[in-house]
Backbone:
């Protein structure tokens, strides 16, 4: 076994996959590693933090979003202390977009630009955010971004992976174009973090948000993260300034604060559930020492192996995603008029895929727990599903 | 043992209190019952929802905030389907205040009125909310509310229990005065729900929010709830309209939706952590069949018993809270110049109280797990703490 192979064998062993089950869902839900589940159960032991810790663990808990942020920072190419956690993705988007809008002091820019590849519900959320900020949401074709960066655009808010096609966006290029147009970027890394190499600092990006429930394995509804560039963290005014905005020292504090506030805390609004944070904190320990280049290459290689097998054995499926791994996220999306039935049939055969629309089959490759041994049974099951339609 | 006594003996037995420990912290953190911790651990079992449920449990999970809301509804005197869960208290306050402000169609009212008894961090949050809505926050002395309900006031946002004094507010009277002044109310029930009788519908209240981590035992950072009166749930426009605002039917849905959207979902923004929701859901099962009048009377009676003992044995402590149980929340707050040291000394003796300010000692009585047997050891420990200052 190659060195990479043995690293990934170890990471796969960290998950409780039942024998014979192949989990290839490309939806926003990844699996939780055993260590996260065990950590939660320990927290729930009699006498644990959930019992009487309150008065003892409060300071530690309040600092947990920052400490978890420090574990996410290297996965997105930013520095320690620049990432925080909290709430749902929707709120983090609100904080990021409002903070970006707050930076304009010159001629008024009032457009939040995004693209049609977002789901209807994501567009509804962004519509609400734009309205709350006194801005307008402009929804454009994703291929026409460079034509639409007009001088009324305040923010380009985009997913790093097109959720309709799994096409990967070039964060560095789009950020540069956006800056040349005088606007700022808010990247949604939900479908990218933990599967692709991301270098926000290298791309000179401005803001980023992301869910942590897919490739970061934090569990369903795990807290979302928020990053703001240190180029302007001192100057932004998010719409909602929480209790962290200007945290005073505790009045009875005699020693130095063991958890000095971080600048990114200015964008924090409260402290999420200790339980949810603890699970995510434990799940992120899996990433210590892993090489992001190898992770990203593995996601791509798994996809290439799968699509070659599907090409050979599953006529009738039309690939919507790019055929080139480097142009894709970690998912493959196929068109088939009966994709919903295929998904159910796969599930009955122990292969979990997902169906983002009735005619779309999505297969996701999580580098930490999928490996090449998943390909053959999944493609056999797909062949079988197609044969029995 | 009286019938009430045996009911409360059962509820106390639902918690994992170590022998000899007396938990009387009046902070926002209550204990989690064993059943909630066990439910979480079951969720974490191999093959449980955290593993592969994603595709199977999604619809159920998305409906969980509403189902939990239905368990909270009877505790605050409102109907099924009117309460939802999500995020932190701060976001729920934002949704409630912005929804209230959205109802004004006549002359512009731009003041959010609150009082000086809120903590500095709560005031900072409300300041941020008011600013985000283009309103101003006006912070007044709590005794002067009826003088300050001017015709520029849009919303009176108050805690149902004064956190500085534990004085209980008269929700019905203040709501009536506010309505007569042409404004709306947003009640923060964090320190009241689960300890006091609350009848929002009877009080003709408008909006309410609350944490669920104190007397509802949802665990640290448990999701906060939000209620809006059905008098105007169809008309409000919260600042942040989430994916739930106008949820379309699933395109491949052939049967009837098992979880039809609730009107209160219009104020929801995303779905909180499954893990955090599950713990709270289990914790709320303790309330089935409990009588809120008995709960409230018990909190009051525990307080009266404690303060009589302190009067007799602990000179030097000055009661800040009202002496009449019916005028109080479930806490007693004392002034003592060395309250922080007293709190530490109590803790060393196995009595957990809390210290909201260096010269304030706060004792909270959770009807579900505190009983009269806690009074004597707590007062003895306090005597001892005072004697050794």
Residues:
């Amino acid at each position: 076994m190659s060195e990479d192979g043995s690293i990934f064998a170890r990471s796969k062993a960290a998950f409780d996959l039942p024998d014979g089950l192949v989990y290839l869902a490309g939806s926003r839900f990844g699996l939780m590693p055993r260590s996260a589940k065990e950590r939660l159960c320990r927290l729930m032991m009699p006498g644990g933090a959930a019992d009487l810790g309150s008065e003892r663990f409060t300071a530690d808990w309040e600092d947990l979003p920052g400490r978890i942020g420090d574990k996410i920072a290297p996965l997105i190419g930013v520095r320690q202390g620049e990432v925080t956690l909290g709430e749902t993705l929707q709120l983090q988007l609100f904080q990021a977009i409002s903070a970006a809008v707050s930076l304009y002091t010159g001629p008024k820019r009032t457009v939040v630009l995004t693209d049609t590849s977002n789901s209807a519900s994501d567009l509804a959320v962004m519509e609400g955010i734009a309205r709350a900020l006194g801005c307008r949401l402009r929804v454009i074709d994703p291929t026409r971004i460079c034509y639409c960066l007009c001088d009324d655009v305040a923010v380009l808010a985009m997913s790093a992976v097109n959720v309709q096609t799994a096409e990967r966006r070039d964060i560095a290029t789009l950020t540069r174009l956006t800056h040349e147009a005088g606007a700022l970027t808010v990247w949604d890394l939900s479908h990218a973090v933990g599967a692709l190499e991301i270098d926000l600092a290298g791309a000179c990006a401005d803001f980023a948000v992301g869910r942590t429930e897919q490739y970061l394995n934090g569990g369903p509804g795990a807290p979302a993260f928020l990053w703001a560039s240190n180029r302007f963290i001192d100057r932004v005014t998010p719409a909602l300034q929480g209790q962290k905005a200007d945290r005073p020292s505790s009045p009875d504090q005699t020693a130095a604060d063991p958890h000095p506030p971080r600048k990114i805390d200015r964008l924090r609004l409260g402290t999420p559930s200790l339980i949810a944070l603890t699970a995510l904190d434990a799940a992120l320990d899996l990433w210590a020492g892993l090489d992001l280049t190898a992770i990203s290459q593995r996601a791509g290689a798994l996809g290439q192996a799968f699509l070659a097998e599907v090409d050979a054995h599953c006529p009738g499926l039309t690939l919507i995603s790019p055929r080139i791994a480097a142009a894709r996220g970690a998912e493959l999306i196929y068109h088939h008029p009966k994709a919903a039935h295929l998904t159910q049939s796969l599930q009955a055969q122990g292969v979990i895929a997902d169906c983002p629309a009735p005619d779309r089959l999505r297969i996701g490759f999580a580098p930490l727990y999928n490996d090449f041994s998943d390909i053959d049974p999944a493609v056999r099951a797909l062949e079988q599903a197609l044969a029995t339609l």
